[in-house]
């Protein structure tokens, strides 16, 4: 009887551990979902408007113990996360995901809206929270910007070939885009400007919009659209992020667009390291 009772107590304890682990995973997913929803809309932070940002990806290597001591970079090295930049946020007091999100928006909006971060991890113990945002080292061996722009064109056309839901908007399959050298030149110029001058915005430092830049490059258009991204080291990762972001997704699925120019630029001294621009046009 003692053995049977012990087995039963062990089974009950194991079940409780599974339930607790599942609840923690759900909280992590809910908070990340709230952060990504916040990033997916234009926000006012520190007196400035931020552009729509692609979602952060959950990386379990960033789920660090709350009692982690020592250097954060060392902790990530032990977790085998090849970090370029990282920011850890500690919260004490929020009782649930909604309260934690409110605290993040009020005190850490600049971190949440920093375009250089692409990965996220979250841990919680009671009312203690730790959120880690990071960007890994660029690992892919990229070809020149024209070749990578063509890869992005192929990836976008694969996405456009399918019926897709972009938040509340439903898009039927759209015709494939064709390459525009003129739009590509304008896209490369904007990516280079963002990288060299360390900013992330659809408006350049001279206040020019995507339409302005297309026109200056010699492109006569009825309609111009633009998606930008930072931090990701491959066209496929960039497009994946755009597809998960309602505004970016709607842009790339828009059947009115017929042509595309796309490019990346790298500057190791910039915050995000690498910047991408996709310029859509309807001549």
Task: Provide a descriptive summary of the structure in words.
The protein is α+β, with helices and mostly antiparallel strands. It has helices at residues 2-39, 72-78, 97-107, 109-112, 145-160, 181-197, 210-216, 235-243, 246-253; strands at 43-45, 48-50, 57-58, 83-92, 119-125, 128-136, 164-166, 169-171, 178-179, 223-230, 259-266, 274-282. The strands form four sheets. Strands 3-5-6-4 form a four-stranded mixed beta sheet, sandwiched between helices. Strands 9-11-12-10 form a four-stranded mixed beta sheet, sandwiched between helices. A two-stranded antiparallel ribbon has the order 1-2. Helix 1 (2-39) packs parallel to helix 3 (97-107). The longest helix is centred in the first third of the chain and has 38 residues, at 2-39. The protein starts with a helix and ends with a strand.
- Strand residues, percent: 15-25%
Give the CA-based shape: globular
**What topology, given as strand order, has the largest sheet?**
3-5-6-4
The CA-CA distance between the termini, in Å, is 82 Å
Please give the radius of gyration in angstroms.
22 Å
What value does the average pLDDT take? 90
Number of strands: 12
Largest sheet: 4 strands, mixed
Please give the count of helices: 9
Question: Which range best describes the helical content: under 10%, 10-25%, 25-40%, 40-55%, 55-70% or over 70%?
Answer: 40-55%
* Order of SSEs: HEEEHEHHEEHEEEHHEHHEE
Residue stretches low in confidence (pLDDT < 50, at least 5 long) are 1-6, 11-21
